[in-house]
Amino acid sequence: MRLIARDLKKVFNRRVVFRDLSFEVKSGEVLSITGPNGSGKSTASKIICGVLSPTSGEIEFSNGEEKVDREEIYKRVGLVSPYLELYGEFTALENLLIESKARNLAKEAEERANEVLELVGLYGRRNDELRGFSSGMKQRLKYAAALIHDPDVLVLDEPTANLDTAGTDMVFAVIERYRREKIVVLATNDSDEAALGDVKVVLQKSLGNSNGR
């Protein structure tokens, strides 16, 4: 898998968040996106995932010589981010089964859900309702939801937010596991996380009003 960004520009309410953003990363590599608050790290992550569209420029996913259709990107990407919400009235397992159904995964969805719950350290709480979880446990479940379909590209926005030392160790273990054959994208201000990047992008503070470029 290869992920290519060409001359990305994003404008919100005439404010240029970033422009001329280009990079290329392939399976087995980590892309780190860093920069001060407000520089567009989360925005760039959303564009990579197809949640947002760039104002100009393009994102391309390719598998060998074949480009991946934009409508199919969600099948290839897993996202962990502080702004994502899960269902508090359902159990951890039920949340993952809902995610599996939304992604049209195979009938072995419960087996896969239990695998990723084990991976993130929540298997023992799989039948507990999410509303009783701590913020760190909810963050762990977001990882399970992002991994449920074994994505080719794992995008982590603020990877260790709300996590204690054990949770942080889990995140680094997931990164090391997935970077062997997948693409991992880290949007972070943490120097230890950013240092994992084989490809590094440093964004600048908001560029001000759009001038038509």
Structural description of this entry:
This protein is α/β, with parallel strands linked by helices and 213 residues long. Helices cover 31% and strands 27% of the residues. It is built from seven helices and nine strands, in the order E-E-E-H-E-E-H-E-H-H-H-E-H-E-H-E. The chain has helices spanning 41-49, 73-76, 92-102, 109-119, 135-147, 165-178, 191-194; strands at 2-12, 15-26, 29-34, 56-63, 66-67, 77-80, 153-157, 183-187, 199-202. The radius of gyration is 17 Å and the shape is globular. The two termini are 31 Å apart. 37% of the residues are buried.
Helix/strand layout:
Elements: E1 2-12, E2 15-26, E3 29-34, H1 41-49, E4 56-63, E5 66-67, H2 73-76, E6 77-80, H3 92-102, H4 109-119, H5 135-147, E7 153-157, H6 165-178, E8 183-187, H7 191-194, E9 199-202
Parallel strand pairs: 3-8, 3-9, 6-7, 7-8
Antiparallel strand pairs: 1-2, 1-4, 4-5
Helix pairs in contact: 3-4, 4-5
Main pleated sheet: 5 strands, parallel
Tally of alpha and pi helices: 7
Global shape: globular
Query: Architecture, CATH level 2?
Result: 3-Layer(aba) Sandwich
CATH class: Alpha Beta
Number of domains: 1
- The CATH topology annotation reads as Rossmann fold
What's the helical proportion of residues? 25-40%
User: In CATH, what is the homologous superfamily?
Assistant: P-loop containing nucleotide triphosphate hydrolases
- Please state how the strands of the largest beta sheet are arranged side by side: 6-7-8-3-9
Terminal CA distance: 31 Å
